[in-house]
Design brief:
- The chain is mostly helical.
- The chain has a single domain, classed as Ferritin (Up-down Bundle).
- The protein is built from 6 helices and no strands.
- It is elongated.
């Protein structure tokens, strides 16, 4: 958010960037754990190769945010131990519903992250071009993951509406918490 649109009590641009890096680091960590949970269940299935490919991209995203945490001296979220367990559990539970369940989870998460990254890129000050580029590149990867999940039958997952609503709500809550804690 630019200085001219800031209200009293809003975080400064530097604080806003630190929050972005903190939550994005947490989110990419959670994504890696979700895919690890899915692979624990579906690793040898037809979906395993697709999930491994998405997991590899998420690991690259995580590595970039780990560097940014150090370079920018940003405190990571204190909730990392929770995301370690919750991410794996979400991945494994969605995969227990089958490939379509895992893909529905992926689509739900990526739809939330697409919007999240879009809003972040819009808020960044002009001097944050490199971070904006990173966020936009990662957003494109997340959109590709969403599209792959849709192509692999996410919409036909068992309990689709309930699963996606719960995953989206949980993802939004995780974003809100990781930004602040």
């Amino acid at each position: 958010m630019s200085a001219r649109h800031r209200l009293p009590g809003d975080p400064s641009p530097d604080e806003d960037v630190a929050r972005m890096i903190r939550v994005d680091h947490a989110g990419e960590y959670g994504a890696v754990r979700i895919y690890e949970g899915q692979l624990a269940v579906l690793g040898r299935s037809a979906a395993g190769a697709a999930i491994r490919e998405m997991a590899t991209q998420e690991r690259k995203h995580l590595e970039r945010f780990e560097k940014l945490v150090v370079e920018r001296r940003v405190r990571p979220t204190a909730l990392t131990p929770l995301w370690h367990v919750a991410g794996f559990a979400l991945g494994a539970a969605s995969a227990l519903l089958g490939e379509r369940g895992a893909m529905a989870c992926t689509v739900a998460v990526e739809e939330v992250i697409d919007e999240h990254y879009r809003r972040q890129a819009e808020r960044l000050e002009p001097g944050e071009g490199a971070l904006r580029t990173t966020i936009e590149e990662f957003r494109a990867d997340e959109i590709a993951h969403r599209d792959q999940g849709l192509a692999r039958g996410a919409a036909e997952a068992p309990l689709h509406d309930l699963l996606t609503a719960a995953v989206k709500a949980g993802s939004r809550l995780a974003i809100w918490l990781s930004t602040r804690i």
